[in-house]
Amino acid sequence: MLNLPAQGTATAVPDTTQFLCLQPLPISTPGLNARLGGIALQRCDYSLNAIDKAQFLQVRLPPHQLPNPVYLLKQNLSPSLFEDGISEYELLQQIIALCEPAHVLPVIFNYKYFAYLEALALRCFKGADFLDGIEVLDLKVVLQAACLFGSLSAFAPQALSSLNAVAAALKITISEPLAERAASLPGIIAYLRQYDAPILQFCLRGRNERVRRLQQSLQQGSLVVMADGVHICAAVCTGLNGHTAQLLCTDRELNVYRYTLRLSQPVLIAPQGILTEQRQQHLSFNLSQAARVLQQALTSNSSIEDDRSPPSLAQSFFEHLSAAEKTLYQETGKRNPQLLPRPPLGASPFFKELLFLYQADNFRDCLVDSELEAYRTFCARRLQRNATRYAAELKSASSLLNENDEKQQRLFLKLSTYLQKL
Known about the structure:
The chain is an alpha+beta fold. The protein has 16 helices and ten strands.
């Protein structure tokens, strides 16, 4: 059982909370050009009763982009699915509206796929802090905590590597229709409520609890334990602002490294007491030695070269913009996207393309004939360039094929002939 001090702790969600279960379907690798094929969603009340029918918000892939065959094959997705649907701009608007009410808590499995929305937001001039205001519960983190400290301690790590693996381990059915792909998440919450309620309740305290623990660490120099759904480490907070925390961490092998944590990321930040003597032995994690190497690193003058911070999409994105373009970016995001002026003559090619595709990909009806022709030409050239990458990815996908799976074989045939039909 998870033993945590009760005094001063934040409260978990009230029983008036609605869970918005979301399952993003990525169709490309992460990064600035990350693409989602859509998001499956299921709303339910605090008792986990469905409020309405499951939905699938299908995203229209721009005609200059190609999906990654590996992602499609793993998720059993046909490439033709993304020829229709809503635009990225419309998807963001709907997600904002769904997540905005205070009584709604978004629930996902694996935050990194929810974070794809940041790439969409940057392309749609919504800025770098799109995710900062959205409180999210990541069931992968809760399940990892249950493996480390609760009822799932006998489970192998690979049993929690994917939603399908979790569903198989917990004997939860995942329906095939796209709209039903988020419907398994309430079942995971129900399992955790039954077998690991203290762990679930602690994770439900969310960002306020993370920040409180990090503030204590910063002020007192105390250790915290961080689990992100995959890794576990002991850490000391060395800096904290409104959006990020600077951590000095050590893993079980006592490797010391720096880590910049985005406060909106729903990791587990727990007091060091969570690692009891028994758990330290079970996990091969010596807390006393961890404290010692972190203290040595803090008091020495040598800098820690190992930085395991996740790449910052926003930083990579805004490095392409001049100071004037950054200002113009902010102004553009506040304007009617269908009535935008042309970019200034001195704008960089990156900004010009960004603005053009923002309108052309999302509001094609607003383009005049000359702009439509320019868009068609751009799409043809970009598609030709992306075809080489698609062929290489298709070769990688072929190595994943199960020769005895006829359904998978039929899907791979669709992937193989997809370019011919464009």
